[in-house]
Design goal:
The structure is a single chain. By secondary structure, the chain is of the alpha+beta class. It folds into 3 domains: 104 residues, Acyl-CoA dehydrogenase/oxidase, N-terminal domain (Butyryl-Coa Dehydrogenase, subunit A, domain 1); 107 residues, Butyryl-CoA Dehydrogenase, subunit A, domain 2, CATH 2.40.110; 138 residues, Butyryl-CoA Dehydrogenase, subunit A, domain 3 (Up-down Bundle). The chain contains 11 helices and 10 strands. The strands form 3 sheets. Strands 1-4-5-8 form a 4-stranded mixed β-sheet, covered by helices on one side. Strands 2-3-7-6 form a 4-stranded antiparallel β-sheet, with no helix packed on it. The chain has a two-stranded antiparallel sheet with strand order 9-10. The longest helix has 34 residues. The relative contact order is 0.12. Bound molecules: flavin-adenine dinucleotide. The site of flavin-adenine dinucleotide has 21 residues, from strand 1, strand 3 and helix 11. Flavin-adenine dinucleotide binds next to strand 1, strand 3 and helix 11.
């Protein structure tokens, strides 16, 4: 796809950024360290601005290029980037003027990190089953409940949470909570099979008292956060999977050309050629779909791109492991770890199996 001059500059600058700030931290992230300093640098260098209204040109294509480049170096970092951008996007779209002026600038430059916390142990993929309660007495909301499987539970400064706001009707209200609010606590004890370093954990709300100024959007209309962030979530998730595929394809191509058995390179075997052709086609088809969705801001294409790219990345990660053989299974190379990274993406950023319903409503 064609890139404008600005997009070409952006692509070069994110590649430079990756070399300068991400590559030196890759081992730390792989070992589970939350990369707060790298996220701060992303903010300082203006990379959050592409999707945060009021702080640069809104451009979903540039956003997808940034996520893809980050993911091809570190899927976990790309995951955190998408998470924070989505929360900032929600706040900028749904927030009051006061809320925007209080938070958005600091979110755009990475001083404040944010996450969206919807999932609960019993509600899982079904947002409308959320049990956390918010009760209004006078002008004060009291929030009680918990969230689980939350990205950045360990380190976010701002949590956008959804709570049930009526005991009679299944209606929800979104709130902006801060990590230092009285009654908010967190545990970053969860360890995923993939996506190391994302600060995955639980949040607990015990008699958290907040005012109306922390209500995000309209009371009882909290479920609207899902369509609001759908574009950022789906294009972001699809681009994470695309970055994983780019990186694997590059490594696989080099490996099958270089590794020789009885004097012949792996790439001379027809089964190897066939596997690589499928990997290449998946990568190219996913990028075409994602870029088209992003350029046209087409939500139904974005849903399709998310499902396609996330499923194909798993297929490619498995194929890459086969082509690397035991050399890829060996932990210092660790090609198989990308299977675990790829497996996480369909589960979150609107679970693929829930997304099909949103897709049908959009066509
Ligand atoms: C690495 C990682 C990070 C995450 N970060 C966050 C975060 O920051 N914030 C957050 O809120 N959540 C986060 N999640 C949670 C994620 O959104 C949930 O895992 C997801 O919503 C599915 O919930 P569940 O895992 O409890 O699956 P369950 O609800 O138990 O569902 C299991 C499977 O059943 C099917 N299913 C369930 N419900 C439906 C339905 N209504 N329609 C169709 N099929 C259905 C799907 O196949 C689903 O995968 C994260 C998850 C992962 C893996």
């Amino acid at each position: 796809m064609c890139l404008s001059e600005e997009q070409q500059i952006l692509r070069t600058s994110i590649k430079d950024f990756v070399k300068r700030y991400v590559v030196p931290k890759l081992n730390e992230i792989k070992n589970g360290k939350f990369p707060r300093d790298v996220l701060r640098e992303l903010g300082k260098n203006g990379f959050f601005n592409v999707m945060i209204p009021g702080f640069g040109v809104q451009d979903s294509y540039s956003y997808s290029l940034i996520v893809e480049e980050l993911a091809s170096a570190s899927p976990s970092l790309a995951w955190l980037y998408v998470t924070h951008v989505a929360a900032a996007y929600a706040l900028s779209r749904m927030g009051s003027e006061d809320q925007r002026s209080q938070y958005i600038e600091k979110m755009a430059d990475g001083r404040l990190l944010s996450t969206i916390a919807i999932t609960e142990p019993v509600s899982g993929a079904t947002a409308a089953a959320v049990q956390t309660k918010a009760e209004l007495t006078g002008q004060t909301w009291t929030i009680n409940g918990s969230k689980t499987f939350i990205t950045m539970a360990s380190d976010a400064d701002i949590f956008i949470i959804m709570a049930r706001s009526s005991s009679e009707k299944p209606v929800f209200t979104d709130f902006i909570l801060r990590s230092d609010d009285r009654g908010v606590s967190r545990s970053a004890s969860l360890k995923g099979s993939g996506m190391p370093g994302i600060g995955w954990g639980e949040l607990f709300f015990e008699n958290v008292e907040t005012g109306q100024d922390r209500v995000l959007g309209n009371r009882d209309e909290g479920i609207k956060i899902i369509p609001t962030i759908a574009k950022v979530f789906t294009i972001g998730a699809a681009s994470i999977s695309l970055g994983i595929m780019d990186m694997l394809n590059e490594n696989v191509l080099e490996h099958i050309k270089e590794r020789k058995i009885n004097g012949s390179s792996l790439s001379s075997f027809q089964i190897v050629q066939d596997r690589y052709l499928h990997m290449y086609t998946n990568d190219q088809a996913a990028s075409a779909l994602i870029y088209r969705a992003a350029i046209n801001d087409d939500i139904k294409l974005a849903y399709a791109a998310k499902v396609f790219a996330t499923e194909k990345a798993i297929e490619n990660a498995v194929a890459a492991s086969r082509l690397f053989g035991a050399n890829g299974y060996e932990s210092s190379v660790g090609i198989t770890s990308y299977i675990d990274d790829a497996l996480a993406v369909p589960l979150h950023f609107i679970n693929n199996d829930v997304l099909t319903g949103l897709f049908m409503n959009s066509v």
